[in-house]
């Protein structure tokens, strides 16, 4: 009896050993990912950073994005080098504004020939799914409100103004302001949520765009990390900084268009170390001031006539703000002095008011010396 017991125990131990060895052997065999459905190759979406990845990087990106909503503890991906992994994770984060709950930090676990992505989350899956539904409902309402027949430029402008009207810059809570949920549902954002929300709306409207980052230098000379958008309108790229266009000023106005579709030359004044490089933003064709005839080389009679016409349009629209911009410092400083110190703005208001049968008694203004813009609020 003892003999058979010993044999039985030996067989059990042998089975365990074989099982363990098979498990170890399996870890030494690379997983074949050739049957992965590469859904982002043909879905028509804008995925700027995805397109820069290696083939294995694209597979890892696809696997993670396809599985992440269920909040798995790990996702097996191809064996990437450290640089490939960094590029993949960067692309995953920067291409997908719908990602709400995955932290901008993660770990890789390598076991033999296997590699596992270990995501980290801000909250559990149920809360994340609820946030996603609320965010999507808000996005659908915005998209449904877009007037029919708008051009890509007009659609971009509509989204820009909507965001500026409904978002408030988050100064107080360091944990809020980074996701599309924070922006669309809470109405609270820092540059990351401003940019990601714009990205999402443009994506859903089929307007090519991607995120850019760098260092922003504000009007006080202070610098900090910053995010904004690169937008393609009629085949040409432009920089768009919705964050810096949201003034949140009760006196001057809620927002401006200083950074609406600006060129590399324009934005270099206060946006440094731009990544990615080579964005080819060299055109002014879709710049707000160019499109609206409010960019001037000189402060002369032609400029004054154009400004008076703009004021009349403001009267007719029932609004009270307008903006102008100059291409050079001499013209800008001459206009700034004449309009704000010599009373030209009141003469132009009276000139426009006679035609519109409406007038204002006071003109407040805000200036941006770096961008050579002046925004007026008529009261």
Describe the protein's architecture and organization.
This protein is an alpha+beta fold. The chain has 4 domains: 1-30; 46-121; 138-291, C8orf32 fold, CATH 3.10.620; 296-379, Ribosomal Protein S8, Chain: A, domain 1. It is built from 13 helices and 16 strands. The protein has helices at residues 2-27, 55-67, 82-95, 125-145, 152-166, 180-186, 191-204, 242-245, 264-267, 288-291, 301-317, 329-340, 344-356, and strands at 75-77, 102-111, 114-121, 168-169, 188-189, 209-217, 223-233, 236-240, 246-249, 253-255, 260-262, 271-275, 295-296, 321-326, 363-368, 373-378. Helix 2 (55-67) crosses helix 3, helix 4 (125-145) crosses helix 6 and helix 6 packs across helix 7.
Summarize the structure.
Helix content is 43%, strand content 22%. It is α+β, with helices and mostly antiparallel strands and 379 residues long.
How is the topology of this model organized?
Blueprint: H1 2-27, H2 55-67, E1 75-77, H3 82-95, E2 102-111, E3 114-121, H4 125-145, H5 152-166, E4 168-169, H6 180-186, E5 188-189, H7 191-204, E6 209-217, E7 223-233, E8 236-240, H8 242-245, E9 246-249, E10 253-255, E11 260-262, H9 264-267, E12 271-275, H10 288-291, E13 295-296, H11 301-317, E14 321-326, H12 329-340, H13 344-356, E15 363-368, E16 373-378
Parallel strand pairs: 4-5, 13-14
Antiparallel strand pairs: 1-3, 2-3, 6-7, 6-12, 7-8, 8-11, 9-10, 14-16, 15-16
Helix pairs in contact: 2-3, 4-6, 5-7, 6-7, 11-13
